[in-house]
Amino acid sequence: MSIVALALVAAGSVAAWWLHLRGPRGRLLPAPAFDEDAAIAIHVARHDLKGRAQAPSTLHLLYGLLQVDRVTAAIAASGGDVAALEDRVLDALATGEPADDEALQRLLVRASTFAHHGGRPITCADLWAFHAGSRAAAVLAAASIDLHAVLFWLVHDEPPPDLAPALTSDVYVVLKNDGYSTMELVVEVLVEDFGLAREPATELMMAVHTAGRGVVGRYSLTRARDLVLAARARAAAGGWPLWIGVEPA
C-alpha cells in the first residue's frame, strides 16, 4: 500500500501511516493530530476512496473538504458555487483518471509539517492550502474557485480588509499576525514592498508575531493603497493569507 493510501485509509489511526512520512531532511515527523473539521474531511475522503476502489487522489480529499460546513461557507463567501464545484468533483472522480497520489502525498506532508511547526492540529486551511499543481487544483480552476481567497476566509473568517475609500487623510498601514503566513514572507514584504532595512523589518515582524499586530508606518491613503496591494499580491503569489490593511491616522 502506498504512503498516501495509508494516509487516507488508515486515517482513524494516524500514527500508523505517519511513521512512513519524512520531513524535508529525511527526519521522521511526529504523528499529527487533526482538528474536528479536518478529521471529518479525512474520514469522508477515506470512505469515498474505499467505496470507489480507486487509487488515492487529491480529488478524494477535496470531496471530503466539501462536506465540511466551514469550507463550503468560505467558498460561498468568496463567490464560489459550492454545488457546481461538488458536481465537477464527482464527475472527475467518476472518470477514473490516473490518481495523483504523489501530489496528495506532498500536500499531506506540507500540511502536517506546517501544522506541527505552529504547534497545533492540522486544520482544513492546511488541507486546502497546498492543492497547487494537483488534479483538485485543475477542477477548482475550472469551477472559477479562487484558492487563495478561500484560504483567506478559512484563516481569518473575513475577506481582505477594505482599503477605506471614504478616508481622505493619512492612514496607518497595519499588519496582523494570522498564525499562518510565514515570518519570511512578512520580512520580504517589509523589505521589498515597504523599503525597510532587513534588521528593522525583522524586528517589526517579531513584534507582530508577539503582540498580534503592528504598525508599518504612516502614509497618504493613495500611497498606502499602492503598498498594501503590492504586499497582498506578493502574499497571494505564494499562497499566503497575509492580513494587511489601513487604519485612520
- Level-1 CATH class name of the largest domain: Mainly Alpha
Question: Within the CATH hierarchy, at the fold level, what is the topology of the largest domain?
Answer: Double Clp-N motif
Number of domains: 2
According to CATH, the homologous superfamily of the largest domain is Clp, N-terminal domain
The strand order across the widest sheet is 2-1-3
What does the main sheet amount to?
3 strands, antiparallel
- Name the shape in a single word: elongated
Termini separation comes to 59 Å
Number of helices: 13
Number of strands: 3
Q: Roughly how much helix do the residues carry, as a percent range?
A: 55-70%
Spans of at least 5 consecutive residues with low confidence: 1-29
How much is the radius of gyration in Å? 20 Å
Element order: H for helix, E for strand: HHHHHHHHHHEHHEHE
Q: Give the mean pLDDT.
A: 85
Structural class: mainly alpha
DSSP strand content: 5-15%
Task: Name the CATH architecture of the largest domain.
Answer: Orthogonal Bundle
